[in-house]
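Sequence in, structure out. Go.
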Amino acid sequence: MANDPDWLADVLREEGLDVVEYPGWHDRGHGDFEEIWGVVCHHTGRNNDAPQVLADGRPDLPGPLSHIHVAQDGAVTVVAQGVAWHAGRGRHDGLPDNEANAHTIGIHAVSDGQADYPDVQYQADVRCAAAIVRKIGQPPSHVIGHKEWSTDKWDPALDMDKLRADVEAHLSAASSVDAKGS
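Output:
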């Protein structure tokens, strides 16, 4: 439990996000995290998935399936604190092969992957990722797409280099505001 992100809802709120805590999120997960390396971004595959889908899972895969649900209106729901089954098998520099679930926080944006995210949803995705990497002391390079982890996946339907650049810009803007306030 020492590495589990019990701080997740708080750091997202500190980013100014509209955060809902899904009932029981503190007790939901498939065991405890190892050291948290970063974030894996996803989309749900449908335009109407509720947080309950991520919390409860599917007939073939028990929930939680991710940690954070980002609705198309930008609302953010934290659904789990422990390990979630979001990454599956894969490989990425800095992570142990096939072990991303125990080292990354999953963010799922509600999208069928066909249309662009509404701007409010995209900005919420950026701010969620920025809040997490700031909290764990990692750079934006520790925000990856599911498609960068697993060659079998194509989500999220985003340009991940642009997303990481936007995370970097958000972190830099927040740093300059903090420096001026000091």
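Check: The chain has one domain: 8-155+163-172. The domain at 8-155+163-172 is CATH 3.40.80.10 (Lysozyme-like).
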